[in-house]
Amino acid sequence: MTGLRLITFDLDNTLWPVDEVIRQAERTCSDWIAERHPDAASALTAERVRAVRDRLVRERPAYLNNLTELRRDAMAFAFIDGGFEEREARHIAADAFLVFHEARNRVTFFPGALEVLETLTDSYTLGALSNGNADLKQIGIAELFAFHHSAESIGIRKPEPDMFHAALRTAGVKPHQALHVGDHPVEDVDAARRHGFHSVWANLIDLSWPQDLDRPEHHIHHLRELTDLLPLFDD
Question: Which among 112, 48, 98 has a CA at the least distance from the CA of 74?
Answer without folding.
Answer: 48
